[in-house]
Amino acid sequence: MSQQEPFQFRQTRRQWLATVAASSLGGALAVAAEQAGFQPRYLLASCMYGYTPLAEILPEVARTGAAAIDLWPMVHGNQREQLDELGEARFREQLDRHQVSLGCLTQYKLGPFGLADEMRLAQRLGCRTIVTGGKGPKDAQGDELKRAVAAFAEQMKPHLELAEQTGVTIAIENHGSNLIQSPDSMKWLLEFTGGRPLAIALAPYHLPQDEKLLAQLIRDLGPRIAVFYAWQHGMGCMTKLPKEQELLQMPGRGPLDFTPLLAALREINYQGWTEIFMHPVPRGIPILDGTAEVTAEINRSRTYLAECLRKIG
């Protein structure tokens, strides 16, 4: 089974360029680095296929340009439960057969304080990222929010110690109706956790659909973004809509221009995962009828993102 590199907190591209540009040789190197380009490391979310069996999803990983899979549990998908039904040995065999690695385990239902067994499982399977949500008051503002984020960071200390031992990074998504949802809350969380293996799973869907704001947030968070969801709000994912309106969450369909976001990711020399994403209504169904159709829609967005990268130059 192929193994991805552990997520590491690295110097940003901007910081590196500032260092090397101090000399004429460094300036030339900086120009060369800017021209080198940026290619996303794609991660495939199993829930995009609803409750489809893993045996049917795993061949699609390479077809979507991804090298790794993100396993989602019920209600969004049930592939995490399928892992338990298969057992670790058979699951490894399936990964090996399709030359896929386990890139991420998404576990909102366990929460940030219930991941101990999941981190040990991740360690055994060579997985380096677990995504979950924050814990704390959902409507705090200003100083109250900062204190709540500080309290959450303190509560996370023993869990981050285990994360260090197992080689796992816990990535907190800026989920709506959550303690960690605003740009300030994300920046404070990273400040209060220092160099510990805690990062952000950045979901533009849950933020103002402002390209400049999102691009600046990417720069502010820098190398402590572990997962970037290529996911926009469109017309939302909470009520049933005609499929063409529901699909406006996908890159290239809704109005959000991803070009500035990808430019910011390139600027920080982003090393984390990029996951093309949306939520269907109801949860647990594929985003489109048929496995081939889901893969084609993901590739449609991937083609759009490639066009955005070409615009950057």
Concise description?
Helices cover 44% and strands 12% of the residues.
How would you characterize this protein structure?
With 313 residues, the protein is an alpha/beta fold. The chain has a single domain, classed as Alpha-Beta Barrel (TIM Barrel). 44% of the residues lie in helices and 12% in strands. The chain is built from 13 helices and eight strands. It has an eight-stranded parallel β-barrel, surrounded by five helices. Strand 6, helix 10 and strand 7 form a beta-alpha-beta unit. Helix 1 packs antiparallel against helix 2 (24-35), helix 6 (116-125) packs parallel to helix 8 (157-166) and helix 7 crosses helix 9. The longest helix is centred in the C-terminal third of the chain and has 22 residues, at 291-312. The protein is globular, with a radius of gyration of 19 Å. Residues 1-35 have low confidence and may be disordered.
